[in-house]
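Support request, please re-run this one:
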Amino acid sequence: MTRVAAIDCGTNSLRLLVAEAEADRLRDVVRRMEVVRLGQGVDQTGRLAPEAMARTFAVLRHYATEGARLGAERVRLVATSATRDAANREEFVAGVQDILGVPPEVVTGAEEAALSFAGATREFAGLPTAAPSPYLVVDIGGGSTEFILGGATVEASVSVDVGCVRLTERHFAADPPTPVQVQAATKDVDAALDRVREAVRVDLAASLVGLAGTVTTVAGIALRLPAYDPDRTHHARLAARDVARIAADLLRARAEERAALPVMHPGRVDVIAAGALILDRVVAAFGFDEVVVSEHDILDGIAWSLL
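Re-run finished. Output below.
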């Protein structure tokens, strides 16, 4: 049985999935996630910071060792928003090549969307309680957010440069952010959603499927989990009113209050409020009653592409 290593290098986190196919589903051998904040300052400088690349390469060396130990026969690293925007991305490419033996694939927004859609929705076909299609899959990242509409395949997609790290760095200078800062961030998000409407027929979607750490963290808060538990958050349904309430609470909370939440990863403390704001605006603007949460996303799509 072929075993593969998929690596998702985003603006905020670096994630590893070693997996193998089991019928029509992936069997996880191991999943890892570290917040490395590769996109630190990219929105302002247009370059990857040396310290951010150093953090990323350190974790990547560990992932390379882990993949080899577990017998992964194929490796693919997909790099997304931060590296697309960086003027010095060739330095990053060379570092990854040196560590993994293969270059990173700095994918376009459309390619990122297709991988996310496959990872999130492929398993729905075999689930009797699955959300109805067509799906609007929303992948909230650190630097960008992808919107993908489709059923069996992708019908339309768009990537907008609004993510939890980018929005925090642009607008949230205070902790907690001031009402004026929240208003400016909201205006930024709403302008991006106007661009989404122009590119994707969101009104055709029967279900909203939310991906990535912002969404799963909000789900953990809504479920009042004593600790983060992906088995509980996967395919949980978040009511629109709960998303709005949690987003408002996070925007009012100080860093120490956010950090004290039992499901909060330390690397998300400073950016979760902006991420929750994005999720809330998506739900409200597009008129959905709930969000179906998926723990499976672009990382799973990368693994499937290798299998």
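The CA atoms of residues 6 and 76 lie 5 Å apart. The chain has 13 helices and eleven strands.
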